[in-house]
Amino acid sequence: MNTPIKRHDALKNLSREHHDGLIFALRLQKGVAKKAKLQAMEAYAAWFWKHHLLPHFTMEEKQLFPRVDEGHPLVKEARQQHGELKSLFEIQAKSYEDFKAIYELLQKHIRLEERELFNWIQEKLTENQLAAYQDIHEAQQSCEVWPNPFWK
């Protein structure tokens, strides 16, 4: 039986945002499986990128990663995946294959951060360092209800 991950309070908002990211990925996966209208998927992906993922990546890269060893392989891998995802979103996905690439990489990325990177960060940072980060990341990015649920 897997033991649940004990997340430090300072990182809980990021973990909640990761949950929203997994919901987004699942919705894309369902949209691809049912061959939903590409235009609806494009609009949703563009909105989610602008209002959720981009601010989330910026918070991690500008506020969290600089507090630890940025040369560590986990931090490097997370940054690389951020770059790959940014490229996928910036080409403005136009096919089911594009959306599949997005949801697969996003799921892989979130699992890396949740299962490995955040655990390492919790061990690496002191309580004071985690509290200082928590002070600047109190508000969770909102994953609002999308008006066109193409995934249903």
List keywords for this structure.
152 residues; mainly alpha; Four Helix Bundle (Hemerythrin (Met), subunit A); 0% strand; elongated; Hemerythrin domain-containing protein; Hemerythrin-like
Notes on the protein architecture:
The chain has 152 residues and is an all-alpha fold. The protein has a single domain, classed as Four Helix Bundle (Hemerythrin (Met), subunit A) (Up-down Bundle), CATH 1.20.120. The protein contains five helices and no strands. It has helices spanning 12-33, 38-64, 73-90, 96-124, 127-136. The N and C termini lie far apart (32 Å). The mean pLDDT is 92.
CATH class: Mainly Alpha
Given the C-alpha coordinates, what overall shape results? elongated
Helix content: 55-70%
Number of extended strands: 0
CATH architecture annotation: Up-down Bundle
Q: What's the gyration radius in Å?
A: 16 Å
CATH topology: Four Helix Bundle (Hemerythrin (Met), subunit A)
Q: Helix- and strand-based class?
A: mainly alpha
Order of helices and strands: HHHHH
User: Main β-sheet, in a few words?
Assistant: none
**Head-to-tail CA distance between termini:** 32 Å
Mean pLDDT: 92
State the helix count. Answer: 5
**% residues in beta strands:** under 5%
Unreliable spans: none
Overall number of structural domains: 1
Domain Hemerythrin-like: 12-121
Organism: Psychroflexus aurantiacus
Pfam family, one: Hemerythrin
Protein name: Hemerythrin domain-containing protein
